[in-house]
Design brief:
The complex is a heterodimer of chains A (308) and B (199).
Chain A lengths: L2 E4 L2 E8 L6 E5 L10 H9 L3 E5 L16 H15 L4 E6 L1 H13 L5 E5 L7 H30 L2 H4 L6 H11 L2 H9 L18 E6 L7 H10 L3 E6 L6 H4 L1 H16 L8 E4 L9 E2 L18
Parallel strand pairs in A: 3-4, 3-5, 5-6, 6-7, 7-8, 8-9
Antiparallel strand pairs in A: 1-2, 2-4, 9-10
Chain B lengths: L15 H25 L9 H21 L8 H11 L11 H18 L16 H24 L8 H25 L8
Helix pairs in contact in B: 1-2, 1-3, 1-4, 2-5, 4-5, 4-6
The chains are: A alpha/beta (308), B mainly alpha (199).
Chain lengths: 308, 199
């Protein structure tokens, strides 16, 4: 199991796929760990990518500092991993908290990337997200990792995914419970205590950027993704039908296919971002459809023309 | 070497020898914290965070009391040596670089409390099929669950405004206590055939 050295801390990472291919570097969400990308490592490797995943500081097998973890430390750890994959073309993807870290890296090092995928991501804390984050942190403190999972599962996954697993939910939660330590999760959450919005810095991201947003994402709703679309010049927003915040877990085949297609388009110089808005297919391999221009992609209710 | 306690008996209970060794370690660590909190508790509290000292003293004592009664004890001669080494490890080590010796001792106590409550996860040693109604199993789960709350007093103090000028030194003190406690915990577990769970 290889490790990178971030000062006195160890960062555990995994590399898979052909050494001569372009790289995909994937960044975990808050309560995740690198093994949750195993399916992506296999799918993207099969399409010629060198895939790098890692446990952030405070997660999984990486070191868990006792008191303080800053987001700058996470960006630095990500930078070490990107250096580790070598001087090849690098596509960077992150989900949720990992999406934020990926955005921060891209703002500072856009020239190092060939493309960016921001999934269920945000550059600012809306009042809803701020209050939800505070409530989740309180839930973690009072009820432990298990209670945090109890809050996150129904918030971030669909009935279609949860339904068949309801009778076995403790087993679903167990690996995450074993992997996550309360104090380490709390440190990760508290790295937001002095968070400043990144919105005005998003213009520094000059690489092609794919923004993926679940249709029914409650935690980071469309408005937060819209902010990314509007401020990142070469972006496209793709809405994933019937999906919630944690669609990388719920729809891995579709998401891995979207990641691969994005990178293949960029490498073939066929990518057309243009701050456009699209609807993803239901299944991997299907066609993306432009969002109907007569509709408002921020709303669920169609535009209604009031007769005069 | 297994990641979990066991093999369990037919009722889903942890072997008594493992219960004894794990409980002895926890009693040693939480008992030491209880003693030190008892000494640190002022007659007249002057700051809000000191109310946590009172609460924590009784939480540590509760853990000791709970384990004494929930464990199927067996004679373990190695404990004579092990317990002595554990007790030596919990002795006060005032944080260096501070002129205020009371504050340096308090930071060390909080660092040790943080390490014991945060770095040790006794419930994570239990296999999935451990008997949920067994007293030892329930005690480990209770200790881990309560530790998540108990450690908050340490976090509030160690991350608090008053210690910001000493942030790096405080951080180093906490990391050192974590290393020490993890090392002793891992060594104890190795002695009963358990290696801490990996992803």
């Amino acid at each position: 199991m290889p490790f990178l050295a971030l000062g006195s801390y160890r960062i555990r990472y995994e590399l898979e796929g052909p050494d001569d291919g372009p790289a995909y570097v994937l960044v975990n969400g808050l309560t995740q760990y690198a093994e949750l990308w195993a399916g992506y490592r296999a799918a993207l490797s099969a399409r010629g990518f060198r895939v790098a995943t890692f446990d952030m500081l405070g997660q999984g097998e990486s070191d868990k500092p006792g008191l303080f973890i800053s987001q700058d430390d996470q960006v630095a750890a990500l930078g070490l991993l990107i250096d580790q994959v070598g001087r090849k073309q690098v596509f960077l993807g992150g989900i949720s908290f990992g999406g934020l870290i990926a955005l921060r890296y891209a703002i500072a090092h856009s020239d190092r990337l060939a493309g960016l995928v921001a999934m269920s991501s945000f550059a600012e804390l809306s009042p809803q997200l701020l209050l939800l984050g505070n409530a989740l942190r309180t839930g973690l403190i009072l009820g432990g990792t298990g209670y945090l999972q109890d809050l996150l599962l129904p918030m971030n996954l669909s009935d279609a995914w949860l339904g068949p697993r309801l009778g076995n939910l403790e087993a679903v939660k167990r690996q995450g419970w074993l992997t996550n330590d309360v104090y380490a999760l709390q440190n990760l959450m508290e790295s937001f205590l002095d968070f400043q919005p990144l919105t005005l810095q998003l213009g520094a991201i000059t690489v092609p950027t794919l923004i993926l947003n679940g249709e029914f994402d409650f935690l980071t709703p469309r408005s937060l993704h819209e902010s990314l679309r509007v401020h990142v010049k070469d972006s496209a927003l793709v809405i994933i039908p019937e999906a919630y915040h944690a669609f990388t877990l719920e729809k891995p085949d579709l998401t891995a296919d979207l990641l691969a297609r994005f990178a293949e388009e960029v490498l073939a110089k066929k990518w057309k971002g243009g701050q456009s808005v699209w609807i993803a297919p239901e299944m991997a391999g299907g066609a993306l459809v432009p969002f109907p221009p007569e509709q408002d992609h921020l709303r669920a209710i169609p535009k209604v023309t009031v007769p005069t | 070497m297994s990641e979990f306690l066991g093999p369990l008996d037919s009722s889903g209970r942890v072997p008594p020898q493992q219960q004894t060794r794990v409980a002895a370690f926890l009693i040693s660590a939480h008992g030491a914290l209880a003693r030190r909190f008892a000494f640190a508790l002022p007659q007249q509290m002057k700051a809000g965070w000191q109310t946590e000292l009172n609460a924590q003293l009784y939480r540590e004592a509760e853990i000791v009391s709970l384990l004494m009664r929930a464990v199927s004890w067996v004679f373990d001669p190695e404990l004579l040596i092990l317990a002595a080494s554990w007790e030596a490890a919990w002795l006060p080590k005032p944080m260096t670089g501070l002129n205020d010796n009371v504050l340096a001792l308090t930071i060390d106590l909080a660092s040790l409390g943080h390490a014991v409550h945060a770095a040790i996860r006794p419930a994570a040693l239990l296999p999935e099929n451990a008997a949920a109604g067994d007293a030892f199993v329930m005690a480990l789960r209770r200790i881990e669950f309560e530790s998540g709350r108990t450690v908050q007093a340490q976090i509030l103090f160690l991350k608090g405004h008053d210690l910001l000028p000493y942030r790096d030194a405080v951080n180093a003190a906490v990391e050192e206590r974590h290393r020490q406690v993890r090392g002793l915990w891992d060594a104890m577990l190795k002695g009963i055939g358990v290696a801490r769970a990996k992803v």
